[in-house]
From TrEMBL:
This is CRAL-TRIO domain-containing protein. The lineage of its organism: Eukaryota, Fungi, Dikarya, Basidiomycota, Agaricomycotina. Gene3D superfamilies: CRAL-TRIO lipid binding domain. The chain crosses the membrane at residues 347-368. It holds the Pfam family CRAL_TRIO. Residues 114-262 form the CRAL-TRIO domain. It comes from the Eukaryota. Keywords: Membrane, Transmembrane, Transmembrane helix. SUPFAM superfamilies: CRAL/TRIO domain.
Length: 398
């Protein structure tokens, strides 16, 4: 079965399961909101805002469906899994950041651009990240939550009779990836800890700009991915990509007819996705167990040249993945400093060689200038010695 047929078959099967199990999912949601949510509220002593935020997720029918599907629609397993997921969300996503900005390396094509089966398209550029795992992890969690909310907004924007939007298609651009820049620990953590909290959101991953140089990195990744995920990873040629996605759904960067990626609008960056207000509603006086202390990640600072920085070129600081300008505004001197640093990174080898050659040239010239007055004495001394040596034998013979 070719890629297009496989994606089509998977799409039909997913929508069929969604429609067939809708009554089951709605019944789960009723039980969750009526029985499970109150117990979690009591356990964590949640305030009204945190309770409302938790209920928003439980009312996300697509998310509950995806978790139930992962548990084969077994009611007891699904309820247990959803409750654990809710606790994890309180620990890692509350209080929320309504102004979270998607990483610059993640691009979502405009909402009218879809694959042939109606799924939105993400283009993710895999670039080196210099920040520590403690900085990157909260950002990854926030990014997945933004993608969930985006899918929810797409389903809510359509007519009631339209099919829901349940998954993304991802183009993973490996042009800038090297085995040296691959952070295995963060990647493993994302696959094992984060993606299972947002199951079933990826219909397929297309590896673009893949070459033999990436084979080492892929050999590491495929050992971590489960078999179900491996079945959704594809390595298409340029021709395959155009056949599956069609030129009308691809930017010119990838052989399509859409404008270049930098000229396309991005719904993840526009702020059009409705998120819950950022209000700290979790009290600190809850039980002492590890699951009863909701915490949120803290990012003290982000490098001006980091892929996580939406204000590229300017220093930023961030709390729980929400970046803000470090000084509250874009300062010209900050940008100038970044440009000088990038210029140095790009040309430092040439500059260093030029400095060394210049220093050597100056040293030689300086030495020659100091040595010129002594040259006649040296030559005269050498000439006198030579004449003396020539005269000595003849004197002895006489």
């Amino acid at each position: 079965m070719d890629i297009q047929e496989l994606l089509k078959s998977n799409s039909k099967q997913l929508l069929k399961e969604y429609n067939e199990n809708m009554d089951h999912v709605l019944d789960l949601q009723t039980t969750l909101i009526r029985d499970i949510l109150p117990s979690v509220v009591d356990e964590f002593e949640l305030g009204p805002d945190a309770t409302e935020w938790a209920e928003e997720w439980l009312n996300d029918t697509a998310s509950i469906f995806r978790i139930a599907r992962r548990n084969k629609f077994t009611r007891s397993f699904a309820l247990e899994s959803i409750r654990k997921n809710l606790v994890w969300r309180l620990q890692n996503l509350w209080p929320t950041n309504a102004g979270f900005v998607s990483p610059a390396a993640v691009h979502c094509l405009p909402e009218h651009v879809r694959d042939p089966f109606g799924r939105p398209i993400l283009i993710v550029e895999v670039v080196p990240v210099n920040e520590s795992p403690e900085v990157v992890k909260p950002y990854i969690i926030q990014a997945f939550e933004l993608l969930r909310l985006h899918l929810k907004s797409l389903s809510g924007a359509g007519a009631p009779e339209e099919e829901p939007v349940l998954q993304y298609i991802i183009l993973l651009d490996l042009a800038k990836l090297s085995i040296q820049s691959l952070n295995i620990d963060v990647m493993t953590w994302t696959i094992r800890e984060v993606i299972p909290r947002f199951p079933g959101m990826l219909a397929g991953v297309f590896m673009t700009n893949y070459s033999w140089a990436h084979s080492g990195a892929w050999s590491v990744v495929k050992r971590i991915l489960p078999k179900t995920a491996l079945a959704r990873v594809f390595f298409p040629t340029q021709e395959d990509l155009l056949t599956v996605m069609t030129p009308a759904a691809l930017p010119k960067d990838y052989g399509g007819i859409l404008p270049f990626l930098t000229d396309l609008g991005d719904p993840l960056q526009s702020g059009s996705i409705q998120t819950f207000p950022s209000i700290a509603g979790v009290t600190e006086d809850g039980p002492s167990s590890s699951t009863s202390q909701p915490t949120s990640g803290y990012i003290p600072s982000i490098s001006p040249t980091s892929m996580l920085n939406p204000f590229y070129g300017y220093p930023a600081a961030s709390t729980r993945g929400y970046p803000q300008l470090h000084h509250g505004r874009r300062r010209k001197r900050d940008l100038a400093r970044t440009l000088v640093w990038l210029f140095w990174l790009r040309w430092r080898t040439h500059i260093a060689i030029g400095v060394v050659l210049t220093a050597l040239t100056l040293a030689v010239n300086f030495g020659l200038r100091r040595g010129l007055p002594r040259l006649p004495r040296i030559f005269l001394g050498g000439r006198a010695s030579l004449l003396s040596a020539l005269r000595t034998p003849s004197g002895r013979q006489g």
